[in-house]
């Protein structure tokens, strides 16, 4: 059956708990104290930018491998500059805060980090400024099924560079992602692929997209109203290193119907093969060989099994490497919206 009935819930409600410490207002605080005023621009107008970063438990069981931390914060600072928000330091300083937060929370397994830079101003009417900054973190597993998604092409269009730039990970722009995801959910699909205003394939609701045609890995260019994904860039490098030809170019909607393989990629989605688009089977209906090889390599890297790519990992001690005396996990439950 091409349309999967199982996945119709709102996001992946995995009922995780925030880890006990957050960074907020220039201090480490219990996560319950990281709260914003209802009238601030970040809340009222979506004037914030965020990052989603994963930390993977290394194969040694005692280290968290934070994936491409400097690159995430570099994009984060660039995103913030688009909306004139000034984080409290350069990418290196923000990375240090995240590492210290990891030490304090000492997670026992895989984690997801949410840095947020925002306009804390409360004046009536939108205007661009702000210097708010926070990070919180939570344990995480797979947010998107990794064994084959049934997707549709959305009737919504991706936000354009001259409206709200998809290049910046801007909070308000995720209303667009929510419209796309909801459309898919109520129609019985796992996710949707969204076209840009030129009618070309942009990306999925909260992930980049790649297709394989005739052995070439193809993905929309960074000028196609997409988020410039860190996972996307990593997979392109991996593919090149594995001798797979790559193309970054415009992708037509109907190329999705004739592709040999398709997958979504991103920090949340990780590496999610697509097995049907608009109820047309992709390739054999099973994840294809190039997707499978890339996925295997990627997972080996994040677990610390590929020394060649060790430079992509920032290694921080996990709970197993710490003395006893951890703060107890905070009991607040959250509903995760998968994968942004
Ligand atoms: C809209 C969108 N596109 C693409 C991505 C993938 O980007 P990254 O690989 O940097 O996580 C994300 C986030 O995961 C996203 O929210």
Q: Return the domain count.
A: 2
Q: What spatial form do the alpha-carbon principal axes imply?
A: globular
CATH class of the largest domain, named Alpha Beta
Q: Rg to the nearest angstrom? A: 20 Å
**CATH architecture classification name of the largest domain:** Alpha-Beta Barrel
**CATH fold type of the largest domain:** D-amino Acid Aminotransferase, Chain A, domain 2
> Which sequence of SSEs, written as H and E, runs from N to C?
EEHEEEHHEEEHEEEEHEHEEEHE
Estimate what percentage of residues fall within beta strands.
25-35%
Poorly predicted ranges: 1-10, 323-338
CATH homologous superfamily caption of the largest domain: D-amino Acid Aminotransferase, subunit A, domain 2
In DSSP terms, counting alpha (H) and pi (I) runs of 4 or more, how many helices?
7
Bound molecules: pyridoxal-5'-phosphate
In round numbers, the mean pLDDT is: 91
Give the assembly state of these chains.
Answer: single chain
How far apart the termini lie comes to 28 Å
The total count of strands amounts to: 17
